[in-house]
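Action item from last week, closing it out:
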Amino acid sequence: MAPTAQSDIRRSRVYVDGEALIRGPEGDFRAPLRDLSISGLHMLRPPGFALRVGQAVEVEVRCGPREAGIEFLLMARVARTDSDTVGLRFAPLPDRMARTLERVLSQYGTLQTGAPDERRGRR
């Protein structure tokens, strides 16, 4: 896979293999990532997920090849939910962490293209 330009990564959603584990006051919720960016993530809605928009959560993101062991522990808020997906917005990242996430997305990710319905099948 050709590396993605970091300038594109900075302002785009990127498809990357992985999963997110949301730790909230009602328990833990795990699901595959739909896309990831510097500012947040979009994931499949885990069974039983009922946190409201605005709820603060801790999210553990595992992405890239398993053997790479890439994990980020981030603070976030539930930004949106629907019957199929959840969107989280990350709290501001320290510069060093943001640069590391940019490098991971550039190395292992693919920029999202097309309409959301065209991307729906990508997991």
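Closing note: The CA atoms of residues 2 and 121 lie 22 Å apart.
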